[in-house]
Write a structure and sequence with these properties.
- The protein is of the alpha+beta class.
- The protein has helices at residues 3-57, 98-112, 119-132, 158-163, 188-194, 196-218, 222-229, 259-270, 278-285, 293-306, 330-348; strands spanning 63-65, 75-79, 84-88, 138-145, 150-153, 165-166, 170-172, 178-185, 233-234, 240-242, 247-250, 253-256, 275-277, 313-318, 322-327.
- It folds into 2 domains: 3-60 and 115-192, no CATH class; 222-348, Arc Repressor Mutant, subunit A.
- Strands 4, 5, 6, 7 and 8 form a 5-stranded antiparallel β-sheet that branches. It has a 4-stranded antiparallel β-sheet with strand order 9-10-11-12, sandwiched between helices.
Amino acid sequence: MRKTNKNIIILLSVIITCILSLYFHYSYTNIFQLLQKESSDVFREAIQLEQRKRIIDNNFVYYLSSEDETDIPTSYTIETEDFREEIKKTEEELKETYTERINKGLETALYLESLFPNIVALDSIFKSMLDDLNYPFLTATKYVDNLGNREIFSNTDSVFYIKADTVSPFTAGIRKEITFKGYMKIPRWFIFKQMSVSFTVLGLIWLICMGIFAFLLFRKNPVVEKKKREGLIPITDDISFDKERKCLVGPNKKASLTKQQVQFFDLVLKDPERYAYYEEMRVVLWEGMVFSQDNMTQMISRARKNIRIFPELEIKNIPGTGYQLYIRTEEEVKEFLAKQTKNEEKESA
């Protein structure tokens, strides 16, 4: 197989691996975000349950009314047994539903009565509700008093809060007195389990593609193997170097080589990139003989003439390095033959 084809196969394998990796990451992120959203909804329900429990446990009674008798009150009036307070609404708050107004007013009333949330109980409710959904998440919650600048944690392990994933925070109260923050650790194996079908399909596609590419890359060419058994060194699928008979052979073709040309082809075919370096050529081809650059140039020139019957082959001069045995592409072969024919026509004319 030509090196170009191998490079194409390797490039395709890298591209397919990247595409499948991106799709895997996309699926993973989608599932994670879905779990995060569901957990955020559960956290809000847990906050409402804890709030309800707080009201019942403390036998709390409050009254929310408005000085405005229109359908959309423009202010809150909060009354308990001990106080009465009126708070004007912002433009954003004017768009709130009745239920939202009730909940905000209730949390503010609880805050003013110093009936703060039981953050450990909230964490327990949050964890229990996730367990009911068969979500094996570790949880923690945090209460932030935005007016009093204090925080209460359900978990004393500070590292947990750094490493854990978060749910959407919930700010409560008319003046945004309180913020509830939920934390959870989602086991990565659980996410993989949720995407098991797509994960399996992606894995199978990747394995099949890699198997095909490995087969194409490492399969042995029967023609080349046969040539090796016959003592021939393959150059292309059709052309071989016969060191013993001192020639290049191809389909119904044969190019005889001199001793130095045989040494040159033996040297160049041992190099993975098919290079023969100047110094190496001087040592091997002119061992025990007087060397000159002109001798090397003349030897290469004669070698080029000898192999002209194989238009697929070209001995290229690499300035400052040496020579390379280059395999022409089909297009390059056509161009070479056309140029050769044109030159022959000129010479005959």
